[in-house]
Amino acid sequence: MAETPFEEDTISVTERLAAEALIIDVDGFEGPLDLLLTLSRTQKVDLRKISVLALARQYLAFVDRAKALRLELAADYLVMAAWLAFLKSRLLLPPDPTEEGPSGEELAAHLAFQLERLQAMRDAAARLMGRDRLGRDFFARGQTHEVTRTRKIEYTATLLDLMQGYARIRTRDEFRPFVMDRDSVFTMEQALDRMRGLIGFAGDWTDISSYLPEGWEMDPVRRRSATAATFAASLELVKEGHLEIRQSETFAPIQLRKKDTPS
Amino acid sequence: MSDDQAPEPEESLFEAPPMGEQERMVEAILFATAEPISLRDLAARMPHGSDPAEALVHLRKRYEGRGVNLCKIGDAWAMRTATDLGFLMQRETVETRKLSRAAIETLAIIAYHQPVTRAEIEEIRGVSVSRGTVDQLLEMEWIRFGRRKMTPGRPVTFVVTQGFLDHFGLENARDLPGLKELRAAGLLENRPPPGAGLPGPDEEPEEESTEGQSELFED
Amino acid sequence: MSDDQAPEPEESLFEAPPMGEQERMVEAILFATAEPISLRDLAARMPHGSDPAEALVHLRKRYEGRGVNLCKIGDAWAMRTATDLGFLMQRETVETRKLSRAAIETLAIIAYHQPVTRAEIEEIRGVSVSRGTVDQLLEMEWIRFGRRKMTPGRPVTFVVTQGFLDHFGLENARDLPGLKELRAAGLLENRPPPGAGLPGPDEEPEEESTEGQSELFED
CA nearest B112: which of A166, C157, C152? Predict the structure, then answer.
């Protein structure tokens, strides 16, 4: 490849137009690799025989022109430009035997491979989408059989449901600033169990606080939980007809008494 | 496909396709349509000059005694399962319903954390797990009892079954994506607020579950 | 599966139905549903002792060249109209959701490189895979999660589904157009960039992906 130092001046009008069209359309590219692939087509050779050096020059020229036109290029285009500039210098300078790492030729070969592979996948995608397709070119049975003799309910869920369900729980956890401390929670079931064992002895009006479980009165957090659970359990027992409950006025003590004639 | 059609109408003005072809066409149309189809509709869909009535005669003969028969319903035609094979169709009447949210969440926790006890499930969900939910999952054979845990009370654990893996197209419960991957796939809409931070290394869910599971998958 | 057979054993203990009858049964079952049915499901629905695999061989021959064909899709079977008759079926055509170019490329990469990780897809396309893309393909049930890769981080992989094969009329992922040529040209290798990743000797990625595929193509 005979590269003249003036190649940018010698490109034809059509090539210049094509390059400008590329710049205007930079949003249409899916990143630097996509752009490189498009640029490489101007070489009109088999991708296996592509000149990576020429391609690097094209790309760098492209970036320069974009800068001249004051177009904002995304960071990854600039990263690629820096890398290609590095590659270009490696390809042009004689190899330095003391330098470590891959040679310019190896890097160039890899870039060519990436371009060829991307092109191959695009061709494969096009061929795939061009195949005869279900619901367009060939068809499934239109009239599926329906009998209503046996009915069995089958529950289903998709993998997405499952994962979203899990994600829902886990994100809720992430948001929760503290982990629920089970030790300080007295459940209503526990309170009910406790009350059921005790109400037999509650002949007279007794303050509800005397039903709190032992060891739960001191710590305010635990007391709150135990009080709430005990109160809820009392209401439940009243509803079941085992207990009577009263409160003389707002904030007055709540008192409980066994109901004499449980149904 | 579409470009192949172009030349055909020209020819068909002169000549209808051979009867064998017409029979294939009628067969395909009857197979793919949801409703029985009349002779007139058949003729309208086939190339000009076709004779669906004759094609139907041939087709009917061809399907005689087969598992599926060509039937005339009013003045329309349809393919129907042979009446003596109706017993094979009973499975078609399965009614599918979406699993409840509680069941899905319980199932997800079992899948990600197995072997897991009921108390652990409740701890993770933050609400108690109803008996019905676990029973339903057991009945569906998506979960089963695992080994008892060597903790006080020796509680039973739950694990997912092969049937679960089959249903969800997994080779292995370990292949379930982790939290980070769920997020990358866009399945976690909510990002944690800055400062809430990512789960610490000691509570990385996927790490944890693999550990629990490797034991399960060794035997 | 096993529970469905409950009522039948009484009769079926004696003798499986003659092959002609089995062929009719398979025909009826396949005609009754739009979804592909696996050999296992066929066997489960037929009387005990039946050999659906053999019945399918006969049935496939019977439908050769007809308007409707018997198609193998992965390890399942379904009846589908002949592709040359699509032009008759305009009314049945279902508008499939338009896939973006990114989604189409991602799908092709998954199909040709499977099992493949998200990072590998990004490496091939040169851009990151957007959240919606994978999501959409999962939702269409054209891809699913495969085994985790045994590389650091144990990333999940993606593979294509039976629904994908069915949609594109493929019997098998091996039948993807141009697959052999691409492999021969080395274009399905996951070559790391020289020097960059410096993969240790124990985690040579290209070794793995070829392994994954050869495994896929052995069965």
Answer: A166
**ipTM of the predicted structure?**
0.63
**Interchain pair B126, A143: CB under 8 A:** no
Name chain C contacts of B81, Cβ cutoff 8 Å.
Answer: 28, 31-32
Of A156, A171, A177, the CB nearest to B98: A156
The C-alpha angle with vertex C198 and arms to B179 and C205, in degrees rounded to 5, equals: 55
Instruction: Decide if C86 and A136 are in contact by the 8 Å CB cutoff.
Output: yes
What is the per-residue pLDDT for C22? 95
Query: For chain B, what is the domain count?
Result: 2
Q: Where are the beta strands (DSSP E) in chain C?
A: 37-38, 68-73, 76-81, 116-117, 143-145, 157-160
Q: Which regions of chain C are under pLDDT 50? A: 1-12, 198-219
Of the partner residues B92, B98, B105, the one whose CB lies closest to the CB of residue A147:
B92
Contacting partners of chain A (3+ CB pairs under 8 A): B, C
Domain end, chosen from C88, C110, C137, is at C88
Spell out which residues of chain B touch residue C89, defining contact as CB-CB under 8 Å. Answer: 28-29, 32
Cβ atoms of residues B106 and A162 within 8 Å:
no
Residue indicated by tokens 């300078």:
A93
- Residue in chain C closest to B3 (alpha carbons) equals C87
Whether residue C205 sits in one domain with residue C138? yes
Highest mean pLDDT of the ranges B6-20, B51-65, B190-204: B51-65
State the amino acid at position A54 in one-letter form.
Answer: A
Within 8 A by CB and 6+ apart from C153, the residues are none
